[in-house]
Design goal:
The chain is mostly beta strands and 275 residues long. 4% of the residues lie in helices and 24% in strands. It has helices at residues 11-15, 209-214, and strands at residues 3-5, 17-19, 34-36, 61-63, 76-82, 91-96, 101-105, 115-116, 130-132, 141-143, 145-146, 153-155, 163-169, 172-176, 182-186, 190-193, 269-271. A hairpin with a 4-residue loop joins strand 6 (91-96) and strand 7 (101-105).
Length: 275
């Protein structure tokens, strides 16, 4: 891993940084595991914009990732480590002993030629191996964690993230999330050992607005710069501050406003994330 800088031939290049990608082993994805990916531009089925600030961007192909890790008992060898335009983490192509190939999220220190396996019994605690939480020792850093058994990993999937197994009590394990939240997850849920790689992703400086446009991110206009008809913060004489607590264009509070309504899983959260 590493961050590269650019010669300041333009003012934007002076601030721009990027990844060296030196750990990648190929430039082309495995074709059978690639699908087309359409874009909505932030519009719903009626063509109305339901998510602002989306649109444009470079064309992408979707890589089918094995989040379930349900190929039990079949060892696989790491064939490649690849770039994925759809996520911050790198991905690895695993070639299994029976000939099948699948993509998984690439954990830190995973090397080409290394063997990984997904099991329902105790295996080595090495990066890339997957097993139920009941078999993972306390203190282990994990990623791609299921919330429901056999649903597929949903937690700790972005670059540099990793959760930690703190305790096991009854049917549940206590997991500390990347946000520092502590949550109970059933012991039958599967997780993968290790921290997600590409740690330097968070240190990248975009450098110019056009780089975000390549990602499909359109400009964000401040509410205070709008007219009253367009935003609750709009209008006023001179440079006004909005005159109220920060809200969305529809009037909902945006800072400190609790949006969680899932009371069914409320008891699974032991401690909220620290602020």
């Amino acid at each position: 891993m590493g961050i590269k800088t650019y010669k300041p031939k333009t003012s934007s290049l002076r601030q721009k940084t990027g990844l060296t990608f030196k750990e990648l082993t190929t430039r082309k994805p495995h074709k059978p595991l690639v699908k087309s990916l359409s874009k909505s531009g932030g519009r719903n089925s009626r063509g109305h914009i339901s998510i602002r600030r989306r649109g444009g961007g470079h064309k992408r192909l979707y890589r089918v990732i094995d989040f379930k890790r349900d190929k039990i008992g079949v060892p696989g060898v790491v064939d490649t480590i690849e770039y994925d335009p759809n996520r911050s983490a790198f991905i690895s192509l695993i070639k299994y002993k029976d000939g099948e190939k699948r993509y998984i999220l690439a954990p830190l220190d995973l090397k080409v030629g290394q063997t990984v396996i997904s099991e329902d019994k105790q295996v080595d605690i090495s990066p890339g191996n997957a097993m139920p939480l009941r078999l993972i020792p306390l203190g282990t850093v994990i990623h791609n964690i299921e919330l429901r058994k056999d649903k597929g990993g949903q937690l700790a999937r972005s670059a540099g993230t990793g959760a930690q197994v703190l305790a096991k009590e009854g049917k549940y394990a206590q997991i500390r999330m990347p946000s520092t939240e502590i949550r109970k997850i059933h012991l039958d849920c599967r997780a993968t050992v290790g921290q997600i790689g590409n740690l330097d992703y968070q240190n990248i400086s975009i450098g110019k607005a056009g780089r975000n446009r390549w990602k499909g991110k359109r400009p964000s206009v401040r509410g205070t710069a709008m007219n009253p008809v367009d935003h609750p913060h709009g209008g006023g004489e001179g440079k006004a501050k909005g005159g109220r607590n920060p809200v969305t264009p529809s009037g909902k509070p945006t800072k400190g406003y609790k949006t969680r309504r899932n009371k069914r899983t409320q008891s699974n959260i032991i401690r909220r994330r620290s602020t």
